[in-house]
Amino acid sequence: MEDAVQDLLRYKTLAVGIWLLLLFALERAIPAAMAPAGDGRWGWRRLMRNAGLWLVNLGVSLLVVIPVPA
Question: I need a surface site. Which of 53, 61, 62, 68 has the fewest CB within 10 A?
Answer without folding.
Answer: 68
